Amino acid sequence: MFATLNLNTESNDLFSLSDTQAYDYAHERGAEMVGKKWVDGKLVDNPDAQWAITDTTRSELRELIASAFKNQWTPKELGRQIDEAFVFSPGRAELIAQTETAFAQTAATVQTGKKFGAITKSCLLSNEHDIDDICNAAADAGEVPIDKAYPGGSLHVPLHPRCMCVELVHMPKRKKKGDQ
Length: 180
Hints:
Number of helices: 5
Radius of gyration: 18 Å
Order of helices and strands: HEEHHHEHEE
Number of domains: 2
Shape: globular
Strand order of the largest sheet: 4-3-5
Largest sheet: 3 strands, antiparallel
Distance between the termini: 20 Å
Low-confidence stretches: 1-12
């Protein structure tokens, strides 16, 4: 038996809702992890100077990432725009574009899921996942409360740069007639 999703939004357009939420996330929080890393479950500045960025650069990156959602750029196009606008290497620009796009899309998925009653989430390993890392611990945790961090401290997927895993949101199971 398949579960159905009853859309009760003003526009009845799930994709429009998700796009708006991805843009909002990118506008408010984009690039917040650039130049940072997780240490003991806390996000801290990366002490390696090659990864550090200024607050001005972070703010400008945030606006460019938000523009990507507004203008419907692909991650590759966003990477090209970042490469042209900043002194990042093409590889780092691509990494930022892929990771920030994934963060915003996951945030939209979670917010849309919450709107429709999702209460738990889980990490689904990518088919490209071939090393044992933080993603394995998140996947092994199974369903966790939607606002609780995965093992390792990350609240949502992606769990690290170049992470290709996916976050699923889960609705509570509906009771059948006669169930208590």
